[in-house]
Description:
This protein has 285 residues and is an alpha+beta fold. The protein has 8 helices and 14 strands.
Amino acid sequence: MRGLSAMTADAAVDEALTVSETLVKIKIATWNVNSLNVRLPQVLGWLRDQQPDILALQETKLTDSDFPTLDIANAGYHAVFAGQKTYNGVAILSRLPAGEIVTNLPGLDDPQRRVLGATVGAIRVLNLYVPNGQAVGSDKYAYKLAWLAKLTDWLRDELARYPQLVALGDFNIAPEDRDVHDPTAWAGQVLCSEPERAAFRRLLDLGLQDAFRLFQQEEQSFSWWDYRAAAFRRNMGLRIDHILISPALAAVCTACQVDKAPRRLERPSDHAPVMAEFNQGTATE
């Protein structure tokens, strides 16, 4: 099996819609794997154990020619991807074939592979790897804020076209102090600065909802922990991986949680998967 470039988008969507009508529940997840080449066995194991319908991956760090399409196909998933060597890279793995593929942020001339849009069944999926920003005041920070402004414009247009939309991935933003293990230490720092948080709020102002915050969650719930200083063991983390959903999907969202189990494995990613569940039967009526 290979990426969707050999299949027409219309045929893929028609086929996906026909199959999706038989589904009752759907699971959609995001995971920054920090090198798919290193983490492939963990990803395959997680697919087997959790059985998500859609998994968005960030930081695959692979060129398209090196993407493990056969391994993913043998696990029961279609794959579309946009990669580059050593850095960045995004992919969407899905039970159903995907169509209407987009691999760049409209209006931004940027060679970095940080965006992947696809339609899976009735759901529009936008996989995002938001720039880190390096440090407040740096050129990379300015790039991040400009990138987020273009993202907001694009999401506004996408929401107008697709009622059932999910924008998910590594946003590199902890939206509130409760998403930070030590708000005082992180105050004003990159990932937690007010301009970044304001950019995140502008995404919510479009009508998107943070699926994680639709439900009661444990305090000190995070999705990323530094490799240093035993940060995971001490739960010194940030919640920077998000699943943002349109009102139509929010109405049928039944759960959202961080799965910390993969972070406990040997040679893990520094991020944990985040997964949301939906009553797809209701969503497609």
